[in-house]
Fold HTH tetR-type domain-containing protein.
Amino acid sequence: MAHSATRPARRADARQNAEKIVRAAVTCLGRSADASMNDIAREAGVGRVTLYGHFPSREALVEAALIRLLAQGDEVLEAVDLTGDPRDGLRALMESGWLLIAQAASVLQAAQASLPPGRVHELHAKPEQRVHDLIRRGQTEGVFRADVPAELLASVLHHVLHGAATDVATGRLDAADAARFVAEMALAVCVVPPARTGN
């Protein structure tokens, strides 16, 4: 009985250690995209053996950190009301998305440097689908321009968000202005120009 009782305890300890390691990875990579496995182990308060027992490579741990941030971000984006005017929904989505990108910029940088080509894009599939769906609805309702494919519009918005994050990081854009700017850029890109209204 004692032996079987220790097994669940060990599994619980393992889960707690894995959770601590992922949290530490988010913290360390958030400070520096170049954070090492040693940095993360120290932050988590675990040894290298424990760290590598859960995450056999830095790439695996970077991916776990990005997945964690995307899941947290998805909870925020799920709360954004996209049922009304698509223009209002797009503004709210871009402003919320900007805050998430700003918080995750360093982790995203680490992921882009560490993970295989296409993997970061694959992990962003759900938030990107949310943008695509909103744009398509706006096009159907005649609010967003339909002369440009929804996929291309969504791609432009993706670059606007990440470009703003880069400009803030390099000091070319004030972080206090970024949310407003990315929202205005998104509307400028997607909304039917005034001269075309009613066409």
